[in-house]
Amino acid sequence: MSAAHNTAVSFETGLLDKHRPWRTARLSLPLRTDEDVVYLRKHVREHAVAIGLSLVDQTKLVTAASELARNTIKYGRGGDVHLDDLLDGLKKGIGLIFVDNGPGIPDLDLALRDGYTTGGGLGLGLSGSKRLCDEFEIDTRPGEGTAVCVVKWKR
Amino acid sequence: MSTQDYAARISRIIQDHQSEIGAEWVAQLEALTVRSTVVSKEQLRNHCQQFLAAFANAVRAGELQNIDHRSWDEVRDLLAEISSTRARSGSTPSETATFVFSLKQPLFAHLRSGFAGDAEGLADTSWTINTLLDKLGLFTIENFQRTRDQIIVRQQQELLELSTPVVKLWNGILALPLIGTLDSARTQVVMENILQKIVDTGAAIAIIDITGVPTVDTLVAQHLMKTIAAARLMGADCIISGIRPQIAQTIVHLGVNLEDVTTKASLADAFVVALERTGTSIVKHGAKA
Amino acid sequence: MDRIPILRMGDLLLVTIQVDMHDRLAMTLQDDLTERIVSDGAKGVLIDISALDLVDSFIGRMISNTAAMARVLDAQTVVVGMQPAVAITLVELGLTLHGVKTALNVEKGMALLGKNYF
Description:
- The complex is a heterotrimer.
- By secondary structure, chain A is of the alpha+beta class.
- Helix content of chain A is 32%, strand content 29%.
- Chain A is globular, with a radius of gyration of 14 Å.
- Chain A binds chain C through residues 34-35, 37-38, 41-42, 45, 55-56, 58-60, 62-63, 66-67, 70, 114, 121-122, 124-125, 127-128, 131-132, and chain C through 20-25, 53-58, 60-61, 84-86, 88-89, 92-95.
């Protein structure tokens, strides 16, 4: 487990409060090491089960979380993730917001293309996560950092 | 008079005249009800008496504005039971709400005599009881709707289960006939079912027969392709059979790539292919070598 | 858990992944498997993922790489037991696991590798 993380990521982004009106709870976790990713997966799975997502939807969300968490650590040089429980009327959902103070993404269109990778990976992290979730939004400023927000609603 | 005193007084009036109020109420209901077969007379009388007793008790507790209060639990439970029963036996929501509303007339008649000489008290009481019964009537309707919704959901699930039959044609060969129109939501569920059945039966080949599907649109075609890709990842293979000329046209028109998927017009042809792939063949008796 | 155990059955290596692997553990497994193929002279590798409820692009790549390296070392790899939810997610993710043979369970996987022990 990574050391106590008291310095919150300082990347200013509107995505952090995008779903505030529907947020019933927020769990904030650090993303610095491999184990942090495993820990996040566990929490996302628990919350997904709690709101009654189907097995396939659970798997999709946890997989997207894993991909984005890895991106945050590998490219963003570490950051935070915020796991939000959402309630829109009677509709339940889970929101995940990944933030880092990394170098940012210079060419977003390119980055969102399947297969594009700068790190020797499969290049499916961003584009794949977009496909796996119901909502996907990204806010990035080269030299400052990146924030990615994904949401999955219970059908 | 304080609210508590009012409440106690109303409650006493109801209890003192319970059988008369009950009889008048039942008479009202019987006059209004068109179909008396839905709820038997005996059952109706029981419901009325039970309700009046519970109602009088609840009123005495003094919480006349809030029917969600603890003191109204017994009344709400009773109404919930009554409306569920009626929902299941085919009553309409209004018939069920009428059960509560038709209590007003007999009740007011007795309240009027009970509050004789106290015009202001009678006016206040009438208004309070009127609002109370309105709330309870609405509660009955909401409950009715909820029961009906539950029935619908259950029926939908049963329908869904009926629509993904599995036929084990031979060792390791499954046939999965898809029946009916496939909307996006249903297609996803059906596809997940197919994959689960492949795992459960350990089938090497699944023949997805779409003879019973009238139209195939882009979304359905995509889901079909994804299901086949997923089955392959899992270690099984799929053959699509029952492709009618119109569907063949649609598929080509949509530009769906079927190059590496085996497709056959009939289930029989698909079965032969599946047998070959699993190393089995059919031999006629007495055939000369 | 430090390392994922690798069992040997004749000239076959059998791995059952039962934990949620972090990236380092996955890399270690890849290295261990490659080493054991050489040291044990294995001709086949069976990776059982029936207990995995998650396969992301990193693990997917680990599996592909392992299969590719095994092939170079003249050994075949079969991945067995992929859960339907995982398969559906991988398809949506766009992961193809090209060049990796798969089977529904260990028995079928062994048959694929030409071993009919059952």
